[in-house]
Every structure is written in C-alpha cells, then in structure tokens.
Write the structure tokens for this entry.
Amino acid sequence: MSGVSMFYSFLALLSGANIAVSILMNARLGAIKGLYKSAYINYVMGLVIAVPLAIILKGFDFSNISLSLADAVAFTGGAIGFMVVVLNNHLTPKIGIIYVTILLFIGQLGIGTVIDAIRSGVFSLGKILGGVLIIAGLVYLVKIEKAPGKSNKS
Amino acid sequence: MKENLVKNSGMALASGILVALMVTANGMLAARMGNWISLVIIHLVGLLTASFVLILKKSFSNIIKGVPLGFMLGGALGVFTVLMNNVCVNNIGVAMTLGLALVGQIIASAVVEHMGVMGMKKSKFSPKKIPAYILMIAGAAIMIVWG
C-alpha cells in the first residue's frame, strides 16, 4: 500500500462522513419543501459553491477541451443522481430504510467491483473480501438496532 | 405482497447499481474536464433534471421561498462529497471509494447520534454494536491493504 492510496482512502472515509452530515441537514429541508424541491435547492446550492471554485481554480477554460460522442455518457452522472434520490425515497416507505440501505450497498459494491475489474483488468479479491465484511458489519448493526423494538408488526 | 417485496428489493439493488454507474460517470467527466468544471456540469445536469420533473409536476414555483438559509447548507456540503468521490474514484476505484465512504458514513452517524447534535435524538453508543464496527473497519482495512 502506498502513501498516496492511503491518502485517497482517508478522503473516501471523509466523503462518507460528509454524506452522513448532509443527510441530516437535508432532512429538515425535505420536511418543509418535499423531495423534488429540496433536490432542486441542493443543486442550486451546489452551483453556488462549484461555480466560484471553477472560476477561481480553473478560470473556466474550455479551450483545451474537445468532446466526442463517447464522452456523452460521462455527462449522465447528475441525472442518475437525481433518479437515485427519487428511487430511494419511493422505496423507503415500502420496504424500510434498513433494507434499502443494505440492498443499496450490495448493489453499489457488487457493480463497483465489476466496473473496477473491467477498467483495470484485474479482479481484486481484497476488494471483494473487504466489501463482504463491510456489508456483514452493516447487516449485524441493523439486526442490533432492530432488536429492542420487536413490536414491528409482521 | 411477496411479489412486491421482490420487486421493491430488486429496485433497491438497481438503485445501488445506479450509484456505482453515477460515480463512474462523474469520475470519467472529472478525468476528462478537470475536477472543477466537472463539478459545475454535474450539478447543472442535476438541476436541469430536477427542474424538468418539477415543471412536469406543475410545481415549479415557490421553490426557495420561506426556506431558512441554514436549511440549504446540506446542498453546499454535497459539493464536497461529489468532489471527493471524483478524486477518489480515479485513484482507488469505484468499489473502494464506495466501500470506505459507507464505513465513514456509519461511523460519523454513530458519533452524531451519540452526541445528539444537529437535531438528532441522543442515543448512547451501545457496546453491543462493537462487533459490527469491528467487521466494517476490518473490511475497510482489507480493502486498503489488499485492494
């Protein structure tokens, strides 16, 4: 393991912590504005931060950028993100946040491993084993959190 | 009813697959156009998508009216999640980025709950949960060392 990948690993952990905090902050917004409007506000606020950063740090220099049709797929991320928010919100009341979270991560890590294998040509056993342990920990945590309130109607 | 559970579970899995595809697409964009401009494009595309749906639902009005500024800060934080993910995906891959982010998210949630800040109901850390955290941290360590 290099020091560089250690740095990115720490950054990924930090990204997750940031997700936890923004979910909490967004809960209040969602409660008063609903799903679609709070998503809209999130993107506006995102641009309020991202545009000045891009201008200051990059000077909005599009001159050296040439795009081919193959790059079009790279532009879909923002739209996919919106779909994910809507889909999760739709599913949570039906099967519960707990199962949505677990299934979401199984899907993420499963396909993530496949994408990495396709792009790097190496199927990493360490990533698979690590992913399985993380999901096992999540399932265990969920079982404990559910245990005290066994009054859930079956 | 069972059928619905199967269908909804499949959709939750599909949602996770979408997240992996999203992170990959965003990472590709960042590699192609740089971290900062890609950040603008990603949020612009998201904004256009949300606007499109709001217009379709005929509720494209009074969006920001009456919202305290503090309630909007979550979106500002979201930028940094996208930025960090883009940087990480291009260096350590999709699986490690998402796996480690999950561990970071769970640990941060536990800390926030334990302290009872940010409007969360305070709930003390239970030692019964320790094995779960050991499993997750072990998984993260294996990913970092052998990933």
Notes: The helical segments of chain A are 3-58, 77-95, 97-120, 125-146. Chain A has two domains: 1-65, 68-154. Chain A touches chain B through 105 residues (CB under 8 Å).
